[in-house]
Amino acid sequence: MRFDWPLALLGLLAVPLLIALYVRRDRRRALSAARFATPALLPNLVERTPGRRRHLPLALMLAALSVMLVGVARPHAMVSVPREEATIVVAIDVSTSMTAKDVPPTRLVAARRAAREFVESVPEKYRVGLVSFAGRPFAVVPPTVDRRAFEDGLAALTPADGTAVGDAITLAVDFARRAPRGSTPPPAAIVVVSDGASNVGRVQANAAARRARSLRTPVHTVVLGTPEGTIERTLVGGFREITRVPPEPATLQAVSRTSGGEHYRAEDAEGLERVHEKLKSRLGTRKEDREVTDAFAAGAAGLLLAGGVLSALWFRRLP
Fold first, then answer.
1. Which residue among 25, 169, 175, 198 has the highest number of C-beta atoms inside a 10 angstrom radius?
2. What is the DSSP string of 148-167?
3. What confidence tens digit (pLDDT) does each residue in 71-128 have?
4. Residue 210 has what pLDDT?
């Protein structure tokens, strides 16, 4: 937190002085009362004494004064505000394991559906792009505000062999950081939806994550699938091969941690929708330096009101 007028904070030095004056006055009042009556007889004259709560209204008043003085100094703080523009690139794994039916109807269809709903829910000013990846990444839809183009790209996704997570992140980051010549790229983020570890590619996943972090582009990862997931292949002679394809989250967890993003686990279609809701709220704000004097003024007013109400209720007077 910083202040436009820090000299106003010197007024806070008056608070301990006021406390000292109050303590001195309270002691003198006790001595004055002892001159007119024996302290042991006071319970016969007064039903009950207010005790320590008599100090609370004044404490609230002094707290209000302190908050008010801080407000006069015109404080600034980093607050979350809605972004006017941003770029989001969704990278979807289309490897063969994504045809598993443990997330109905298949992992790939569930990921496609959730990505569509996610993009429909983000502000229209956001540019959205789409990358698919199996053994190599493909630029399906460059970042655009055209939501129909994004939906058409989702419909064109088809399964293939391999999982090149690092290459996909590299391409997605290049997409997200692209901006017209002479302009600054808008805030950007990557969302990777996959079910397994990287097993092919030219760029290691951790290296791609470190590069994304250096470019201030967090990579949020979503691991999809259940331990019971399987895929089937028909072999020569009509035989069927059934292969278990449980999700392997370790690589995606490392990517999100290294890049500064978040990692989510979605074992079913509903879980994936909840994940995208979380990402929507996370991607929808940015940090900005703003003056928060109004908040301190409101806090001071609340404390003053509380002190006045308690004093009126307890002692039928204002402090």
1. 169
2. HHHHHHHHT---BS---HHH
3. 888 888 777 666 567 889 999 999 999 999 999 899 999 999 989 988 888 888 888 9
4. 97
Neighbours of 158 (CB within 10 A): 8
What are the residue boundaries of the structural domains of the chain, listed by start?
A: 2-77+292-315, 84-283
Q: How far apart are CA 165 and CA 199, in angstroms?
A: 8
Structure tokens at 178: 């692209």
Q: Pick from 120, 152, 149: which is nearest to 277 by CA?
A: 120
Q: What is the 3-state secondary structure (H, E, C) of 209-258?
A: HHHHHHCCCCEEEEEECCCCCEEEEECCCCCEEEEECCCCCHHHHHHHHH
Residue 67, C-beta contacts closer than 8 angstroms, at least 6 positions apart? 296, 299, 300, 303
Domain spanning 84-283: CATH superfamily: von Willebrand factor, type A domain (3.40.50.410)
Report the distance separating Cα 72 and Cα 157, nearest Å. 58
pLDDT tens column, 263-315: 888 876 566 566 666 666 666 666 667 777 788 788 878 887 887 777 777 66
- CA distance to 54, 272, 291, per residue, from 47 (Å): 15, 65, 50
pTM for this model (two decimals): 0.64
Q: What angle do CA 228, 234, 240 make, to 5 degrees?
A: 55
Tell which residue, 228, 94, 230, has the closest CA to residue 157.
94
Per residue in 211-267, pLDDT (tens digit) is 999 998 999 999 999 999 999 888 887 788 899 999 999 999 999 999 998 888 887
What are 271-274's contacts with CB under 8 Å, separation 24+? Answer: 272/103, 272/110, 272/111, 272/114, 272/193, 272/222, 272/224, 273/114, 273/117
Nearest alpha-carbon partner for 190 in 75, 86, 277: 86
Radius of gyration in angstroms for the set of CA atoms belonging to the chain, rounded to a whole number:
31
